[in-house]
Amino acid sequence: MFTKVDGPVRLADRVAAMLAAEIESGRLTTGDKLPTEVELVKQLGVSRTVIREAVSRLSNAGLVEARQGRGVFVLPRRTRPLDLDADTTDSTDTKAKVLQIVEVRRAMEGEAAELAATRATADDHARMRQALAAIDAAVAAGGDGADEDLAFHRSIAESTGNTVMVSTLRYLGEVSRGGIRVTRANEARRDDFYDAVREEHDSILTAIEQGNPKAARTAARRHLEHAATRLQNAGPEFWNTTQDLDVELDTAE
Asked: What is the mean pLDDT of residues 37-48?
């Protein structure tokens, strides 16, 4: 069904676009099952990591649904799904789009933190602390901590009990994943950057644990404001590195 994917830029985006095109064209229609992960790896010539991320993007866009033990199936088309990655074609566009997404996240994550301060349970607090510790553990193990960073923010949203907010922030996090990797690569150069992010995260969580909605909102918005500044100041070499990241993951598998 598919031809081999090659080239140095954003493999997961290209695979997701290829699969989406099959759905848009009607060659894959409602109820159809996607080829298995093993089949897609063989046909496209990419790693399992790339396939999983591409399928995750399709799922977040409402195009497919993973069914436990059965596979991934095409969903009915009700309205055209939001696709913030569609027009991002080069490093300049990527940077501008990610900065726009950060502005939206700033509003939503401020609200999520405020709600979490009034709704989170002791178990929620513990999960958030574990998610925060996982970032340090990932970095200590030589990773960039981007996935763990997203998981921490997701844990805050989940503690609100608002499933729409969780889904929306999960999608925004996925499409800004490259930007998060840029900031974390940029932060790795300087201890003061890394320490600042740790302090920002801890301030959000501390306010939530203390049940202080106003402080939680302020801390979350401040964190995203500073993240935007770090993104803006990151040199083009970091964006180029991020775009090549899928290739590095593919080689490592």
From this structure: 92
Torsion region of 121: left, alpha or beta (phi above 0 gives left; psi -120 to 50 gives alpha): beta
Q: Determine the Cα–Cα distance for residues 118 and 105; give it in Å rounded to an integer.
A: 20
Tell me the two tokens of residue 11. 């493999």
pLDDT digits (tens, 9 = 90+) for 110-141: 999 999 999 999 999 999 999 999 999 988 88
Task: Give residue 93's pLDDT.
Answer: 61
Neighbours of 42 (CB within 10 A): 13
